[in-house]
Structure formats: C-alpha cells, structure tokens
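Q: For a teaching session next week I want to show students how multiple molecules come together into a single three-dimensional assembly. I've collected the sequence lines for a complex. Could you give me the predicted structure tokens for the whole thing so I can convert them for display?
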Amino acid sequence: MQQAEQYWLFAAFCCVVATLLLRLVLRERITIQSSLWVFFSLAALVVLAVVPDLTTRLAHAMGFALPSNFFFALATGALALLHVHTLVTLSRTEARSITLTQELGILREKLDRIDKENVHARSSMTAPPALPLPKKADAPHERT
Amino acid sequence: MRVLIVVPALNEESGLPPLLTELRAVAERDRFSAEIVVIDDASTDRTAEVAREHGARVVSLCRNLGIGGAVQTGLRLALREGFDCAVQMDGDGQHPPGELRKLLAVIDTPAAPDIVVGSRYLHGEGFQSTLPRRMGSGWLAWVLRLLTRQRTTDPTSGYRVYGRRALKLFNWSYPHDYPEPEALVLAKVAGLSVVEVPVVMKERQGGASSISILHAPYYMLKVTVAILLAYARSWHRIEPRTL
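A: Of course. Below is the structure for the complete assembly, covering every listed component.
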C-alpha cells in the first residue's frame, strides 16, 4: 500500500511536468515537434507508475531482478535519447543560424552598394535649369 | 580572370589600412584586377569603417561566426557573383600581398589545381613561426599525409586560392573551428586537387592569436579528431551536384 502511494505521487509529478510543458507549448515558447518526445516519455512513466504489475512483468522479461533497477535503466535510457534529440535540434538550429547570418551579411552589402549607386546616379544627373527670377515689375506688390 | 580577395577580420582596424593599401599597389603593379571584400566578423572596433574608407567591399556579420564562418561567407559571395577564383588571406598582416602573384600564377593555368596553398615551410624562407607551432603543424601534416597520401607541409596556412570547383564544395560545406587542415581533407575526399606553393610569410602585425599555449593541446586534439571525422565522410558519397 505504501509502495502504491509512492507510485501515485510519482505519476502526479509527471502529470504536473506535462501540464507545465503543455502551457509552454500553448504559449509558443517550445514547439510541439521538439516536445513530443518528452510527452511520450512522461506518458510511459505515468503508465509504469500507475500499473506497477506491468513494470514488474516487463522488468523480469528484460532480465532485471528488481523492478526499480529496470525503472532506473529505462529512465537513464530515455534521458540519453532526449539529450541526443536536443543535440540534433541544437546543431541544426546553429547551422541554420550561421547560414542566415552569412546571407544577411551578403544581402546587406548588396543593398548598401545599390543604395550608393542610386545616390551616385542621382547626384550625377544634370540638374534642371533654374527657374528665372521674377522681374521687379512682375513681383507681387508688397502689402503695406 | 576575375579574382575576389577575401579578408576575414575581427577587430583589425589597425592592421587593415596597410594591408589594403599594399593590395591595391600590388594589383596595379602585377596588372590583375581584383575586388577586395573584408568580412567583418562582428568587430567591436572600426574595422568595417576603416575597410570602407580604403575602398574595400565590406560584409558585416551581425554575430561572430569565427574564422570558418567568415571565410565561407566570402567564398559564397565569390561563387554567387561568378568570380573565377577567391583568395583567402588574413587581415593581420601575416600574408604579404606581394606573394599573391605566385599563387595566382598557378591557378591561372590550363591544368590549374582546385586549391593553391601558400606554404611558409616549403622553402623555409621568412617567418617560420615558433617551435611549438611548428611541431603542431608537423603533426597535422603527418596525419594529413597518412590519410590523403599527399605531402602537405603547411596545413594551417590560411593563404590560399580557391578555384570554381573548390568554391562550389565549400559553399556546400566548410568547417568552422580552425578550418584550414580540415578543409584540405574535405577537398581531398571530394576529389579536388591541392597544390602547395612556397611563399614568404611575416609575423603577425597586430592583434592576438586565438590559440594560446594553454589551448594548444586542446586545439591539436580537436583538429586531429575533426580531420579523422572529415576523412570518415568519404564513406558517405558527396553529392555530384555539389561540384
């Protein structure tokens, strides 16, 4: 009974973590795609916590003497997988960031050059003839 | 032949003016037309303004990418704008512009190699670097020779000329941290030809090296692993459309 209560607590903890993650997804702080692995891992942990018999049977089937060892190995494996997934995502993001930085630099240089050419072309164009100054007779009479 | 000279620079406001002035004088003397582009790798000083004042094109990167990212930016620009080759040279005055014609003379031949590397150790003239650096360079040269079965004397030299095929390859993929030795392996794996030409180099005129004594062993380990991994990429076929 004591052991079952501990499992329920752990399941509740997993649910809280999942809820926090869900809030982050809804606020668009993290993407669904990148958090899907975490949700699946948490769901698996909840199932194992709620159904302890399943954990025991799986542990014995996998060759573990104690379910706790099996659970520990599973959690370590899941964390390692999540870490690799994060590494792949980070590396891909870094590669994209480098490409974008390079493209931005090249485009900005091109834009500056075009701007400079436009200014140069405008300044080298012959200025329109100045309007003749109004003669004194044509000049509007000043109000007195 | 259209040549783009790529000068990656980080806080080189003092080193750039003499380099750019000398480059112009050399281009006039040796009668080749070249455009100069300074890749400002998010400098905090007046590097970009100084380069513009001296007539160079300036690509300003909005964040620091390191030497590899900066060089690749220049190579991408060269490929996109249809240059026949791109010259890579440091902005700290180590690579005298007067030696440029030796490199360009090799790339401007009918049977031109894809990459020409200026080697300070081939004839042993000029500044030969410090003993630990020479030892490190010797180790990398030995590893490269083992993998590529070609003698390389100066694998860390950043004084290079890239032909069109090399521009296409490095537009697709270019190493980022301390990239010179790794780029040579990548080139060999892709089937590009690399030739070394003896040049005279000078001591760094300004700024500080990114590799300190404390970082040197880590650098050697990192570059050696990177070279081995780059060689392992030959197991994966490089897309033919790359070249």
